[in-house]
Specification:
It is found in: Nucleus. InterPro entries: DNA-bd_dom_put_sf, XPA/RAD14, XPA_C, XPA_CS, XPA_sf, Znf_XPA_CS. GO terms for molecular function: damaged DNA binding; zinc ion binding. This protein is mainly alpha-helical and about 350 residues long. Among the domains are: about 170-260, Nucleotide Excision Repair Protein XPA (XPA-MBD), B Chain A, CATH 3.90.530; about 265-315; about 320-350, no CATH class. Helices cover about 40% and strands about 10% of the residues. It has helices at about 5-15, 35-40, 45-60, 130-135, 145-155, 185, 195-200, 200-205, 210-215, 220-225, 250-260, 265-310; strands at about 205-210, 235, 245-250, 325-330, 335-340, 345-350. The strands form 2 sheets. Strands 1-3-2 form a 3-stranded antiparallel sheet. Helix 11 (about 250-260) crosses helix 12 (about 265-310). The longest helix has about 50 residues, at about 265-310. It is flat. The termini are far apart.
Amino acid sequence: MRGILNKDQLNRIESRNEPVKAPVVVAAAPAVAGSNQRAEAGPSASEINLAQRSSASANGNVAPFYGDGGMDNSKRDASLPNKRPLENIRPSIRRQDYIEYDFATMQNLNGGYINPKDKIPNPGFGDDEDFDSEFGSKKQKTLQDWKREQLERKLLYENAPPPEHISKAPRCIECHINIEMDPVLHDLFKLQVCKQCSKDHPEKYALLTKTECKEDYFLTDPELNDEELFHRLEKPNPHSGTFARMQLFVRCEVEAFAFKKWGGEEGLDKEWQRREEGKSQRREKKYEKKIKEMRLKTRAQEYTNRLREKKHGKAHVHNFSAPIDGGTDEDGYQIQRRRCTDCGLETEEIDI
């Protein structure tokens, strides 16, 4: 098999089997007084090691020289990546490829209703320590939620300080007696109305949604979204917490703006009548369109029937004769026979 290899390959193989030569170490000459004798002694061992390291770094080989005087083998730094390259190799087999449910890492989520990771330490609730330690705080609120709740509570329920004398206190504009105002109407809608009068006069102080304002008073979204025109009360949407917040308007403000827009109550009634007539007209147009489509379909069906009769003739209608006695069958029932006078089709009928 040696005849197949060329000469260079044979030399390369033989060079692998040659013993490694020991490095030549030049001993340092004894120190002699005088600069001439120190120069003739030649370079020291430390200088040779520094020269070898500089040449190795120039050639790109940055491997350290273990065994020399500069570094001790027993005190190597194993954290360097160039000394232990196998630690950077990632395994080719992943655990999730073979393990679908790892019971060692599973956690009890209490049926999906309570997550232990979401628990917030609340040292204020000392009566129920087991509840806090296992399921977290009783009030799972963030700081932003708490601030927003406190701001809404302040806007709704914090009134102005009491007057100096009861005679100077503002009174309800409806009854002129009560001095305790409805906090919602007074703080948000700037109306001096007590709670009893707001309940007794729903035609003035009832709260309307945006949909009711658009359907009853024919207002548009830009008008209702203008904060300079209307005061509003925002609440969470009752249909879903992810929907937009519900906006409530007081009826007296909406009614006053609608009367100004449409020219009073009569103008609002005329606008309602005009829109109702438009709805009826659109309904009639839709009905006429459906009738027209139905007529076209009927005409098309009639035209198709005429073509079929022209091509295959009219459908034959049998004209049977009077029944004739045909005897009895195997079960003993009476058989009657009929015959078409035009095409000769015979039928048998059994009287049960």
